[in-house]
Amino acid sequence: MPETLRLCNRSAELSALIKRVAAARRFVVVTGAGISVNCGIPDFRSSQGIFRQIQEAHGDLVSSGRDLFDASVIFRSSETASIFYHWMTHLRHQCTDARPGAVHRFIRQLADRGALLRSYTQNIDGLERKAGLSVWDPYAEKGSHDYVSWQAAQSVPLHGSMEYLVCQLCSSSFGFSEKPGEGAMSAGDACPDCLARSDARAAHGRRTLPSGKLRPTVVLYEEPHPHCEDIARIISHDARTLASRRDQKATNVVLVFGTTLKVPGCRQLVKKLATASSDNTITILVNNEPVCGKSWDGVVDYQVIGNVEDWCRKIENQWNAQTKITRWTKTRKRNDTYTESKANKENPPPNASTREIAAKKRKATPPAGTDTESTDVYVDIVTIDTNELDQSESRAIKKPKKTPIYDDIDIPARRSLRIAEKRSLEDIGGASAHHPQVSIAICT
């Protein structure tokens, strides 16, 4: 049975798990309706969910609210179909007004950090797209603004979405209009393509054809998924990625948020991803109530009982703490290096060569914002070889860094000299009289 941890308890096991998740390299997230409740969208199975609302409003027609999402029941009569279209339009308006919550922003943050392999959602509200994730939708027209290939998609809706309507007769797809008006398309409307074909036949004196009704592109109970093969291809690709050799030493995490795992397809998805690479992949389910029993042994490693948004905040706090520690460490090392270099410059160690002292002095540049009493000037002399070349064809054996060059001071041929002592700008003029033919680089 998976190890159960409560988010409200401050245990060492929970702290260690949060640190391990925060340091993971790759994430796959599977979400359910529980992450959208705080966004104003009711779930389906709770006491205040959509199933319960439908049963209270239409108990004389359906024995359970679930029946209104069952394909074998909805289209049995025009009355139940009309109720289905009404509830779908109402749910579409709720999805339009809703805004992404903390969990959606957490998933987006994973994507921004380059750690999100894929997000699979059972939700049809489209909040992943509003959060800024690229969403794969097979009904989006190729080349349009909403089209995203499955390879580039960050989020995959397992049960369809409310973005489009599809004709039940000719399978033409249209955008689900957010507001009623001229040219708006709503659930239950007649298909414009079917009507156009029928009118064209009537204009030529032929009999008219029936027109189909538009329904949202969501997958109902007791009906095959129209794009199950495409989703299976995406899942297989992600499972192979989790099991790839380059990830053998990195920690991969499968996060399951806000779902009871009662839908068979979602159960199979979690099992395939969790067992793709059991050596370096940990699977964590976060939900308000216990979900996993003995049947999930070897699949789910940890079951965290608590609010999903609180879990996401803990991970984000751990990320922030790691960032602060990293910045503090870099600043501390920079300050220590500067302090040590300055001490060596003032009191050079015995037996230190002139070249080593000069190198330390050039590196001892104060950090930005550090006050200094005066600007130190160091002279770096470049070797000139004129043994077999004329003075006009002289070349530098060693080129200086990109610093101002002064060529008005000379030095004898085949002689190498490096002046490392601390000098002021006034000393340079005096040096030119004694050392002809040399290039001097001034480093401040």
Name the features.
single chain; 444 residues; alpha/beta; Rossmann fold; 3 domains; 12 helices; 15 strands; zinc; transferase; Sirtuin_cat_small_dom_sf
What does this structure look like?
With 444 residues, the protein is an alpha/beta fold. The chain folds into three domains: 24-173 and 219-305, Rossmann fold, CATH 3.40.50.1220; 174-218, no CATH class; 372-443, no CATH class. Helix 1 (12-22) packs across helix 10, helix 8 (228-242) runs parallel beside helix 9 and helix 10 crosses helix 11. The longest helix has 39 residues, at 308-346. It has helices at residues 12-22, 50-57, 71-74, 78-97, 102-112, 127-130, 192-203, 228-242, 264-274, 308-346, 354-363, 426-432, and strands at residues 3-6, 26-31, 116-121, 155-157, 160-167, 173-175, 214-218, 252-257, 281-287, 302-305, 378-382, 384-385, 395-396, 405-410, 437-443. The strands form four sheets. It has a seven-stranded parallel sheet, sandwiched between helices.
